[in-house]
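re: the backbone from monday

yeah here it is again, tokenized this time
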């Protein structure tokens, strides 16, 4: 029963104490997040894993790329687990290393050494390694502006992987006009751009988050009509047009902070993943909060981490099993660590 599973998890946590660390991303379900030793956005969780020296077992309640990042940032003796191996990220899957290497070959033919790769942390360890090898860095939605600014201090132009929307929204906020942004289509292996290529400042990988693409201009119009006083706050993984029309945009941490410090009685439409929106509704009964898309938008892969999988994973750890352990090869980890270190230095 649920009660038995919950009791089991509490018991394991108690018996392992500080030997076990459970980071939980804000998009995790309540049935899982209740056991998290720390909740955070992807940047905070990466930092906490890097700083944690005492945990032997890190059970990552989030998605695969986050667990990989945790493995890269921790020592050899610390083991990282993902309670369900199917908890991937559709965005991270939109850039594979072979496509990236082929794209890089073509882009460096066109632009020589004037281009620097940046990757959103929502990418595989192999992509982070590729970026590190080519002097680039990772970014998260909390520090994308800082990192893109940094990148432009190094080189004339950037390749931003794999989320075109975060890349476009960030570069736009820093003053890069949309006319200077091209899109790389990894399927057709071509650069989508009209105009002289010397003008290009940003090359956006044609990837997106299937959850955040569900927030539309129509949703915004509907909210504006129905609730004229409502503030609209969205995650920067949303399309440019939606971010443009919203009142604010920021990472999951940014959204939580904005809602928590908002005055009583204010009303908010939020454009991000369903579990977080539901939690904010529950934890802020003094504010009127809705999802920007009335159908709510769950991240199906985040939701694969549930109580039974968490309990099963802990049971396997107690039996000293290595099921669902996430290990990044030292070959990838070395360069990926450099890409991550450049980011962690700047925040
Ligand atoms: P943040 O936690 O950085 O806001 O990212 C959201 C997300 O989509 C994680 O997969
Ligand atoms: Fe990936 Fe989007 Fe889910 Fe985040 S919300 S894990 S970017 S699919």
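seq for it, each position gets an aa:
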């Amino acid at each position: 029963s649920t009660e038995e599973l919950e009791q089991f998890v509490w018991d394991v946590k108690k018996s392992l104490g500080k030997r076990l660390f459970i980071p939980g991303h804000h998009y995790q379900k309540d049935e899982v997040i209740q056991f998290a030793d720390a909740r955070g956005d992807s940047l905070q969780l990466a930092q906490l894993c890097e700083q944690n020296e005492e945990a032997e077992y890190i059970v990552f309640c989030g998605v695969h790329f986050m667990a990989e990042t945790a493995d890269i940032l921790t020592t050899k003796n610390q083991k990282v687990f993902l309670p369900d191996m199917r908890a991937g990220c559709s965005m991270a899957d939109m850039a594979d290393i072979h496509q990236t290497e082929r794209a890089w070959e073509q882009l460096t033919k066109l632009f020589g050494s004037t281009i620097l790769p940046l990757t959103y942390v929502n990418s595989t360890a192999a992509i982070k390694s590729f970026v590190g090898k080519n002097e680039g860095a990772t970014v998260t939605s909390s520090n994308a502006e800082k990192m893109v600014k940094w990148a432009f201090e190094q080189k004339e132009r950037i390749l931003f992987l794999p989320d075109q929307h975060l890349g476009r929204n960030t570069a736009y906020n820093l003053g890069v006009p949309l006319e200077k942004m091209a899109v790389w289509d990894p399927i057709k292996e071509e650069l989508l751009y009209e105009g002289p290529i010397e003008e290009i400042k940003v090359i956006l990988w044609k990837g997106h988050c299937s959850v955040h693409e569900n927030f539309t201009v129509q949703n915004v119009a509907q909210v504006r009509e129905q609730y004229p006083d409502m503030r609209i706050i969205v995650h920067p993984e949303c399309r440019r047009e939606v971010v443009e029309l919203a009142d604010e945009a920021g990472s999951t941490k940014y959204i939580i902070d904005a809602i928590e410090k908002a005055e009583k009685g204010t009303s908010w439409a939020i454009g991000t993943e369903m579990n977080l929106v539901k939690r904010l509704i529950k934890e802020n009964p003094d504010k009127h909060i809705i999802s920007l898309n009335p159908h709510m938008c769950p991240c199906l892969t985040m939701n694969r981490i549930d109580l039974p999988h968490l309990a099963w994973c802990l049971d396997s750890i107690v039996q000293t099993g290595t099921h669902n352990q996430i290990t990044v090869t030292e070959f990838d980890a070395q360069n990926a660590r450099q890409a991550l270190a450049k980011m962690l230095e700047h925040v």
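The first helix runs from residue 2 to 16. The domain at 92-209 is CATH 3.40.50.10800 (Rossmann fold).
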